[in-house]
Design brief:
Blueprint lengths: L2 H6 L12 H22 L14 H18 L2 H9 L7 H14 L6 H15 L7 H4 L8 H5 L23 H8 L9 E10 L6 E7 L10 E6 L2 E6 L10 E5 L7 E3 L15 E4 L2 E13 L1
Parallel strand pairs: 2-8
Antiparallel strand pairs: 1-8, 2-5, 3-4, 3-6, 7-8
Length: about 300
């Protein structure tokens, strides 16, 4: 019997093969399931809207310092405590703030004036509630009245006799020079420049000023104060408080019919133009115009 006879059989009809539609369907489903499993393992979706307690340890320390800076400006103790509690620390939230200030102060935060101000804000917050840490020893002494200034308080006609010198004065490399070498040099203040301001239309986030503070490499800098002024009012908000938007981000809600000026107190000059909102359209939807402003460290 030939191969053709074996395939067709006695009736002349072709015998069923090993491949069937059921096998094809099963293979297709198995391939899709395997692809989804590999995608979930090797390319998981990035999670957004992270909560404060989900931050890495170092990011959490920066976040707590930003809370202290906001408290230093607004003085809202309950709000600051609630934000510290939201971090879910394994200890007392104020003790955790003291440890964060100590760790950051030991790691180079005190090399800039803004860093010193940040650690002082944290120290002021936790010490006001009876806590203590090592940041008190790390912070430089507050500026005090110098000896020459004290000397000016003595009346010029006090009648003291001027002793005659018996020895020539010491050269400049003597004790006075040694004292000058021990005196700490002033820490340079961080400075920024508003590099760009662009309007955009977003129906989900209308009438918003989105500010970002970055260094010259574009990396976000948390804990920096940004000020918005209008009429005879002003408000200050701090970068890095909205952890899901990154270290650089801060925002402010605008009202219609008001012109706003934005700057960074003692760090950046005001933006050249004022910002205001107005009608805009995204697709066929009406919204209110928003702005993005970027401050770059100079």
């Amino acid at each position: 019997m030939t191969l053709r006879d074996q395939l067709t059989g006695a009736t002349g009809e072709r015998a069923p093969g090993y491949f069937s539609y059921a096998v094809f369907a099963f293979s297709l489903i198995a391939g899709i399931a395997l692809g989804l499993a590999l995608t979930r393992v090797h390319g998981p979706l990035q999670r957004g809207n992270a909560e404060p307690w989900q931050l890495r340890a170092e990011d959490g320390q920066h976040y707590m310092i930003a809370i202290a800076l906001e408290y230093a400006y607004k003085g809202d103790l309950p709000a600051a405590l609630n934000k510290l509690i939201a971090m879910r620390p394994a200890q007392d939230p104020l003790d955790a703030l003291a440890e964060a200030a100590c760790a950051l102060g030991s790691g180079g935060y005190l090399r800039s004036e803004s860093g010193i101000q940040a650690i002082r804000s944290a120290e002021a917050l936790y010490s006001s509630q009876g806590r203590a840490g090592c940041a008190e020893q790390l912070l430089p002494q507050e500026a005090s009245i110098s000896a020459p200034a004290l000397a000016t308080d003595i009346a010029p006609n006090a009648g003291f006799a001027t002793p005659l010198p018996t020895k020539p004065p010491l050269p400049d490399s003597g004790a006075d020079a040694a004292i000058r070498r021990l005196a700490p040099s002033p820490t340079p203040q961080r400075s920024f420049e508003a590099r760009s301001a662009r309007s955009f239309c977003d129906a989900a986030n209308p009438a918003l000023i989105e500010a970002r503070v970055v260094d010259y490499l574009g990396r976000g800098i948390p804990g920096q104060r940004i000020r918005v002024r209008w009429a005879d009012q002003e408000d200050v908000f701090v970068s890095g408080l909205k952890v899901d938007r990154g270290d650089a981000y801060a925002d402010f809600q605008m009202d219609e019919g008001i012109d706003y000026t934005i700057d960074m107190p003692d760090a950046a000059e005001p933006l050249g133009a004022s910002l205001s909102t107005g009608a805009c359209y995204t697709g066929n939807r009406r919204a209110l115009k928003s702005w993005r402003v970027t401050f770059v460290e100079t």
